[in-house]
Amino acid sequence: LITVREIYRNREQYLNQEVTVGGWVRSIRDSKTFGFLVLHDGTFFETLQVVFADQLENFADICKLNVGAAVIVKGTLVPTPEAKQPFEIQAASVEVEGTSAPDYPLQKKRHSVEFLRTISHLRPRTNMFQATFRVRSLAAYAIHKFFQERDFVYVHTPLITGSDCEGAGEMFQVTTLDLKNVPMTEDGKVDYTQDFFGKSTNLTVSGQLNAETFAQAFRNVYTFGPTFRAENSNTARHAAEFWMIEPEIAFADLKDDMVLAESMLKYVIRYVMENAPEEMAFFNNFVDKGLIDRLNSVVSADFGHVTYTEAIEILEKNNDNFDYKVSWGCDLQTEHERYLTEQIFKKPVFVTDYPKEIKAFYMKMNEDGKTVAAMDCLVPGIGEIIGGSQREDDYDKLLARMNELRMKEEDYKFYLDLRKYGSTRHAGFGLGFERCVMYLTGVANIRDAIPFPRTVGNCEL
Ligand code: 4AD
Ligand code: MG
């Protein structure tokens, strides 16, 4: 079988030649002596029209096919200068690989994304999700390519862990204990020594702590894998299972971290625009009219920079616009993040130096004793897409902060060890991959940026 992608990309080679393609029927109509079917083979965004005539011995069977049927078509590729499509196949044979029942839910009309979420096993066949998941695949490749070209080592961090990197307690527990008969200790707590790992474990919320151990051995590393958060927030940008890219760089500070984040995002945008022009044009036409212009301007300008304290000053002046009023010390909500990046900067912006109270234990304390060397990258349409920081590399300061937060020292001995044996300045960040896909495509809901979304109350398929 030849792919439709190959035919479109190297059309001169195939015109007036015999080709064989396999795909699914997007639409079909017939008159008495001939018919048309539109074929989509999944390898390319565009479809291929097939003309079939009553000379074919199974003409009647072909006419009976429903949308969604799988067929193999052999025929001649002929140019159609007047038609919308540049060419079509005149079929010498149409072999039916698998028929489709008449109740096939994907008919020619445009379906809402809400409806398509209820059939996540079929939605990858639609234009919308063909485009989204090809861009997602290319973006994943671009991210690996970006880091590999820069000699970063890809490290596979574990999914089951005993630690809570972000300290937010939003973890899915992993246990083999019998929930109907949980073993208890004498002081009335669950006895995790009897659990599979001999201690309490959970799905990871971030690979960072493990990645740091590799950064202190390889210098520059990155992770790219699933992470899990039991956040009870039912929003368009939170998923319970999402993928995160987490580079970690040694001998580097917060500035280096932001330079890396900015060049990575720009690299991915360029890669996707170059390698998925049909898909990007589709998003630009049907999802987000300004998308391509906006992405073009993002890659050609520097990102903005503002400290948290400056950002609060800007936002306080505009508190009338917000449901949740800001003041120094509060965490930024999506509405504030979007206001900063959409109304004030009108481009991606790094917010730095947040109050230590609203950030994780591992971030490096600034000299003011109040803020930490953190950075969030905010983008229009979404808000936070990246969260990162320079890490506390001083043993005593880190330990003091852990004690303040009443963290169990023995659980983080390995992490403290890194500060004991050849500690270096180091920094890293996490890019939420689904939010990155949303940013690249204009897709507005995270449920439509991941193939099989897991959100509060929803774990279909
Ligand atoms: O800001 P976060 O919590 O940072 C970390 O996890 C650090 N350990 C990263 C690091 O420094 N290595 O999460 C990073 C990013 C966010 O900016 C967001 O894009 C994404 O992960 N993210 C989510 N995406 C979808 N659903 C959720 N529930 C998310 N929570 C975070
Ligand atoms: Mg964050």
TrEMBL record:
Protein name: Asparagine--tRNA ligase
Catalytic reaction list: tRNA(Asn) + L-asparagine + ATP = L-asparaginyl-tRNA(Asn) + AMP + diphosphate + H(+)
EC number: 6.1.1.22
NCBIfam families: asnS, PRK03932.1
Keywords carried by this UniProt record: Aminoacyl-tRNA synthetase, ATP-binding, Cytoplasm, Ligase, Nucleotide-binding, Protein biosynthesis
Pfam families: tRNA-synt_2, tRNA_anti-codon
GO molecular function: asparagine-tRNA ligase activity
Broad enzyme group: ligase
Classification via InterPro entries: Aa-tRNA-synt_II, aa-tRNA-synth_II, aa-tRNA-synth_II/BPL/LPL, Asn-tRNA-ligase, Asp/Asn-tRNA-synth_IIb, NA-bd_OB-fold, NA-bd_OB_tRNA
Family affiliation: Belongs to the class-II aminoacyl-tRNA synthetase family.
Complex formation: Homodimer.
Transmembrane domains' residue ranges: none
PROSITE patterns found in the cross-reference section: AA_TRNA_LIGASE_II
UniProt cross-references to CDD domains, sorted A to Z: AsxRS_core, EcAsnRS_like_N
PANTHER family: ASPARAGINE--TRNA LIGASE, MITOCHONDRIAL-RELATED, ASPARTYL/LYSYL-TRNA SYNTHETASE
